[in-house]
Amino acid sequence: MDNLIFAAEVFVNGLMAGVLYSLVAIGFVLIYKASGIFNYAQGVMALFSALTLVGLMNGQVPFGHLINAIFGTQVHHFGWHLPAIVAIVLTMGVMVALAWIVQRVIFRHLINQEPIILFMATIGLAYFMEGLGDMMWGADIKKLDIGLPQGINTGIDSFTADLFGYGFFIDNLDIVATFIAAGLVVVLVAFSHYTKQGRAMRAVADDHQAALSVGVSLNFIWILVWSVAGFVALVAGIMWGTKSGVQFSLSLIALKALPVLMLGGFTSIPGAIVGGLIIGIGEKLFEFSVGPIIGGATENWFAYVLALIFLVFRPQGLFGERIIERV
Amino acid sequence: MIHAATKGAEASGDSPLATDKAGDPILELRDISLSFGGVAAIKDVSFDILEGEIRAIIGPNGAGKSSILNVISGFYVPQEGRIVYRGARRPSLKPYQVARQGIARTFQSIALFEGMSVLDNVMTGRINHMRSGLLSQALWRGRAEREEVENRKFCEGIIDFLEIQHIRKTRVAQLPYGLKKRVELARALASEPKLLLLDEPMAGMSVEEKEDMCRFILYVNDEIGTTIALIEHDMGVVMDLSDRVVVMDYGRKIGDGSPDEIRNNQAVIDAYLGVVHD
Ligand SMILES: Nc1ncnc2c1ncn2[C@@H]1O[C@H](COP(=O)(O)OP(=O)(O)OP(=O)(O)O)[C@@H](O)[C@H]1O
Ligand SMILES: [Mg+2]
């Protein structure tokens, strides 16, 4: 009985971790559907947006280190602190600019290239952005606090304590993150179904030639999609950064999103959500139940092995479309 | 708007109609040449399309017919020549820009949004009639909703007209070929084009399906007044539908005139009619 109660707590915590995996995976799916590009840089985009957000909030001078090295100056801070909401809006502006540059400078020249080439380009982009983030804002771990509630939720704690005689430890931040993520998904769905741009986005995701013929500019839609992916990355970056500080290991979530995508399918937003939750819950429960027996640290590999098993039995993922070769 | 005086919807086949509804040219091709590497697809071709007419483009396989439509719709960029659209020289445009100028098209190898329903496909045809962008959508919900309702009503009208109500919620991927062609026409019509380009709208259809399609095309031309350029292999259909015909062979224009003139043109008979077995 006690074990069941512990497992329930682990389950809930896993759900929360899964929400963040889902967020990153959604960013992948958006870009992949619209352009066939597997964006390795999605995780770095989350990192970059979080770095930019912290930097702007703290009034840090971008490229401060570089400027000082070249001009022998000593500038570090503008001496202001921006309110979180202003900094978030500005950061979003930066992400849109980034989307424009990425399309303009890189992918416009790679139209009709093999997927592997596009993928390589995003690897290059990932390391470029990581370096850029480092140069602009420095490599130290930064604290991100935009005022989201944190710490144990006492309501759930005392409620479960009364019920089971054992209080669940659920972080307020996780609860908020779940609601924000759910809200984000609702907004994305509404956007893609009820706006002109959303309709155009779905059209491009379905068929480029047909989209062109009804007057949709592919270039514009790709910039839009990278911007939306940038927005999703920003949300993920804020959650992750608030939870464990903005640091470069953040970019590694991109790798966790990979097994999520294999589970959920590369072309399905519901798949990305469900896949993220399954991996989040699965790895926590597995660590809880099997971990102690085989010496722990299963969270490092569980997701990948699960994805591998899925690959063998259902290569298109849970929600992906089955591809049947025409002969 | 110019209407045809009389055009026989009944497929009689031997009473082609004279061009009596000629307006000004809506589009002119002047000395267009296009090649792919060493292959010349279009060689120095000039012709015009008059406001309100049905202009057919015929010719054997590989003659360059589709290439012509692709040049008009901006999918191919010719190396030489000029295009005049509605009285003004048209610069080199992207396909989506051409579409926004009021030129809609269908494809020889259907290009639909396979994952969407028929209605959604037709609705994409109205994308450039939707003014409500992201911001206004958020700020003026009322207007955006009204616009959505109007657009939907318009599309339902086209769907009724093309007699595909029964499949309006069906995913296009599940439809047979003949119906897909009809959906593609519906989507093109949804944009209310000034010029409609149809690349073999009846290829691979049964006789009944062809008759339906002919009826729709004539109606669109007669009643809505849409100018149409179409490629078709079935000579009977061409003779019935079109006001004027361009004949292509090996990338060149070898004939241009009314269906009657084309039928009696020796060069055309030699080069083209001899090749087609029907
Ligand atoms: N995108 C392309 N790349 C290379 N060659 C092309 C391309 N499009 C057309 N061609 C070539 O141009 C020539 C004309 O082709 P086009 O498709 O215009 O002919 P068509 O008259 O439409 O023939 P069909 O009746 O078979 O549809 C052909 O030799 C074709 O191989
Ligand atoms: Mg063709």
Characteristic key phrases:
heterodimer, A: 327 residues, mainly alpha, B: alpha/beta, Rossmann fold, four-stranded antiparallel beta sheet, globular, disordered N terminus, binds magnesium ion
Note the topology.
The complex is a heterodimer of chains A (327) and B (278).
Chain A: H1 2-35, H2 42-57, H3 64-71, H4 84-106, H5 115-137, H6 154-164, H7 172-194, H8 196-206, H9 208-213, H10 218-244, H11 253-264, H12 269-289, H13 291-294, H14 302-313
Helix pairs in contact in A: 1-7, 1-8, 1-10, 1-11, 1-12, 2-4, 2-5, 2-10, 4-10, 7-8, 7-10, 8-10, 11-12, 11-14
Chain B: E1 25-36, E2 39-50, E3 54-58, H1 65-72, E4 80-85, E5 88-89, H2 95-100, E6 103-105, H3 118-124, H4 134-139, H5 141-161, H6 177-190, E7 195-199, H7 207-224, E8 227-231, H8 235-241, E9 244-249, E10 252-257, H9 259-263, H10 266-273
Parallel strand pairs in B: 3-8, 3-9, 6-7, 7-8
Antiparallel strand pairs in B: 1-2, 1-4, 4-5, 9-10
Helix pairs in contact in B: 3-6, 5-6
Question: Can you walk me through this structure?
Answer:
By secondary structure, chain A is mainly α. Helices cover 71% and strands 0% of the residues of chain A. Chain A has one domain (2-313). Chain A has helices spanning 2-35, 42-57, 64-71, 84-106, 115-137, 154-164, 172-194, 196-206, 208-213, 218-244, 253-264, 269-289, 291-294, 302-313. Chain A is globular. The mean pLDDT of chain A is 89. Chain B is α/β, with parallel strands linked by helices and 278 residues long. Helices cover 36% and strands 22% of the residues of chain B. Chain B is built from 10 helices and 10 strands. Chain B has helices spanning 65-72, 95-100, 118-124, 134-139, 141-161, 177-190, 207-224, 235-241, 259-263, 266-273, and strands spanning 25-36, 39-50, 54-58, 80-85, 88-89, 103-105, 195-199, 227-231, 244-249, 252-257. In chain B, the strands form 2 sheets. Chain B has a 6-stranded mixed beta sheet with strand order 6-7-8-3-9-10, with helices on both faces. The model of chain B is unreliable at 1-19 (pLDDT under 50). Chain A binds chain B through residues 191, 194-197, 199-200, 202-203, 206-207, 209-218, and chain B through 73, 75, 94-97, 99-100, 104-105, 107, 111-116, 123-125, 127-128, 130-134, 137, 144, 148, 187-188, 191. Bound molecules: adenosine-5'-triphosphate and magnesium ion. Magnesium ion binds at residues 65-66, 108 of chain B.
